Structures are given as C-alpha cells and as structure tokens.
Amino acid sequence: MKTLLLLIILFFPFCSPAQEVKKINSEGIQRLIQESDHPLVIGFWATWCEPCLHEIPWLQEAVAKDSSGKTELILLSFDLPTSFPNKITNFIKSKGYKASFYWLEQPVPSSFFPQINTRWEGNIPSSLWINNQTGYKRFYGRQITELQALREVGELIIRPKA
C-alpha cells in the first residue's frame, strides 16, 4: 500500500492538468481581446451545436500550424448555465479538445454581439481572428471550412497593419 501511495505521489506532478472551464462575462471577454499581446482565434460554440463540433478540430489544426506557437485558441461556450462547469468540462475531456476554455456568463447582454461584430446576432458557430500587434481582425458569423481556417491563421500571423 505504501508503495502504491508513493508511486501516486511521484507520478502526480507529471500528469497533465485537467482542462478548466472559466466563467467570464461580456466585459471580461472584451478585456481579453483588447489586452492580448498575441494572435487570438476565438471560437463561439456550444456542446449541443453540431456545426460547432465539426469546426473545432479545424480551428485546433489551424492554430497548431503557427510555427511560433504564439496563436491562442479560445473556445467560448454559449451553453446554458446548467451545463457550467461539469457538463462542459466532461464534454471537452471526452472530445480531447485543447484550447483555453471559457463559459460566457448568462444572460448575455444584447450589446455584446455588436461589440464583436456589428452584424453579428449571436449565431454559432462563429469565430473571431484577431492580432492586436498587426491590426488584423476578421469575423466569421458562420461555420468555416478546414481550408478557410488554415488560410486564416496564415493571414492572422503575417498580415501587417494596413
């Protein structure tokens, strides 16, 4: 028994940490966007949204193509309050998703959507590609394709300010 306990204690520090879903409000996500010093890809999604689930692996693959490793994928969940945090966390673990995870605190103020994009009405999947260092910003109010995600990350990391 002591040997088993010792093995658990020795092995525990090398285990990868569980994916944590953090609660954030609309002002917090705006701050996160404005204060970022590296490229961001923000995927707006929910566990019940099939098109979102098709898009997430493409976003992960595109972000992984950034050889500098500086682009961050943020998955911002629009799930209902009853899903936070356990259902979302379990879902993320079951799918093996790798990103920074946030749950958008409900109710979402109607002013949130136009702050992201003036024509956005809150439909998901949607994604925001932003690099404050270069001034690059692109919003998709729909599911994007795998090819679009790969092309977009290239633009995100190399396109200079206009």
Task: Give your account of this protein's structure.
This protein is of the alpha/beta class and 162 residues long. It has helices spanning 2-11, 26-34, 50-64, 86-95, 112-116, 146-158, and strands spanning 21-24, 40-45, 72-77, 100-104, 126-131, 136-140. Helices cover 38% and strands 20% of the residues. The protein has a 6-stranded mixed β-sheet. Strand 2, helix 3 (50-64) and strand 3 (72-77) form a beta-alpha-beta unit. The chain is globular and about 40 Å long. It starts with a helix and ends with a helix.
Helix and strand layout, with pairings?
Elements: H1 2-11, E1 21-24, H2 26-34, E2 40-45, H3 50-64, E3 72-77, H4 86-95, E4 100-104, H5 112-116, E5 126-131, E6 136-140, H6 146-158
